Amino acid sequence: MNMKQSIKHGQQIDISNRAAKQRSGDSESCRTNKPVNSINITNSSHSNVSNTEYINTGISHDSSLIANAVHTVLTTVVCDGLNLTAHIDESDQIEFESRLMKYSGPLKLKNAPKMMPYRQGRVIYDGDKAIAQIRYKPIGNAGYFLLHVNPSKLDSGQSQLIQGLVSYLLGEPWCSFVGRAKASMFDAAVDVHGINIASIIPVPSRATQSGFFLKFFQKGLTRLYQQGTEYVGHNTSEKHATVYDKADERSEVIGVSGSEDVTRVEVQAKPRVRRKLGEEVTTLAELPAYENPLRMLSIAELPKDAEQDDFLRIATALTAYVGATAVLQLIGDKTLQDCLKGHLVAPPCSWWQPEKHWVEFLIGLASHPLFAPCKLLNEPAYLQVANQA
Q1: Angle (deg, nearest 10), helices 18-26 and 354-366
Q2: Alpha carbon 66 to chain centroid distance?
Q3: Does the global pTM surpass 0.90?
Q4: Of the four listed, 3, 68, 69, 256, which is most buried by Cβ atoms within 10 Å?
């Protein structure tokens, strides 16, 4: 099956036999220079970090420090959180509050804790399970309505209930709300099956080490490993990431246990920050115009001899904040310098394919039962599927 999808400004995303390519590409070694099957975006000024780019930073290649492990890795992409924010006119606020008080449908609405004084909110329950949250600020012309959902945890029935609730509260069709609401925050999560967080590290790309990425680390405390979770980037930045053990979370939070290792790489993006740049993304339909947030990370696997080496782990993670050159200057021992140099030239793992994951995220979000009725797959044109076999 060959599928092509057009993007604004003439870019083309070529999605040809994605599943087959993933299976064949995943068997590639993380430590080779072989090309990796991925989605190709033409006319793009961005690309994944290559092995050559690492070498060009002045870090020499020491193949003896790089393990030759081969992994068959399955990845799944989900939307783990989404905020949709819409303006409420002053004339509509009275109607909104009246409907909120009168609501007696199948869902339960409970006061949301920890809200700021000028905001109000409700947690939405389906039975005993919290499935969403609404927040609102009914103050003059500045009033707004915000819906927070986790699409990855909603089934079709719960999606329909949320659609009906929002349509009732706002007095407009669900798809009308989706069409005008701003995507003010979203979490793009990649679950990596068969890999434990202890064996991988996120490495910023060469481009971001010296530019856009670093400016968000200049204030506040940064965090490395804490209770099995690695944080990359300041939580007030437009984009920041967490890498954590999803298998442990499933066991502790929802009681699901199993022997499979699952590591989640999750990037949170806040498009509203781009107001300062005059490039604010306003709707779900415009997300393809937003710079792929998954590009902020390159994922490399720790060499076998470094899995238990705290020095390599911490030093490599620190390069995400100050760059490789600065870290090497802090290390006086030449042996340790050479060890870190050899470690940093490791090319990205074949299973980490930001362009492919981003397209899967967009398609998965638009085809989710919560948004499928709004036909985001067909309009705008970037998600139109052509030449299906």
Answers
A1: 140
A2: 28
A3: no
A4: 3
Return the closest-CA partner of residue 14 out of 44, 55, 34, 35: 44
Sorted by sequence, the CB contacts under 8 Å of residue 239 that are 6+ apart come out as 216, 233, 267, 268, 269, 270, 293, 296
Q: How far apart are the first and last CA of the chain?
A: 5
Helix (H) or strand (E) holding 41: strand 40-41
Query: How large is the angle between the packed helices 310-322 and 334-344, nearest 10 degrees?
Result: 70
Q: Which residue has the tokens 């902020």?
A: 296
pLDDT in tens, 127-138: 999 999 999 886
The tokens describing 26, both together, are: 């995943």
Q: Is the pLDDT of residue 88 over 60?
A: yes
Task: Calculate the dihedral angle through the C-alpha atoms of 109, 150, 118, 139, rounding to the nearest 10 degrees.
Answer: -90
Contact 178, 284 (CB under 8 A): yes
Q: Which helix (H) or strand (E) holds 124?
A: strand 120-126
* Cβ 187 vs Cβ 81: under 8 Å: yes
CB 370 within 8 A of CB 163: yes
Half-sphere exposure of 13 (CA within 13 A, CB side): 24
What 3 state SS string does 127-180 have?
Answer: CCEEEEEEEEECCHHHCEEEEEECHHHCCHHHHHHHHHHHHHHHCCCHHHHHHH
Domains and CATH numbers, the chain: 2-78+186-383 (no CATH), 80-185 (3.30.160)
Rounded to whole angstroms, the Cα distance separating 171 from 323 reads: 51
DSSP string, 260-279: --EEEEEEEE-GGGGGGGT-
- Report how far residue 362's alpha carbon sits from residue 267's, in angstroms, rounded to the nearest whole number: 14
Render pLDDT for 361-382 as a digit per residue (tens, 0 to 9).
Answer: 999 999 999 999 998 755 444 4
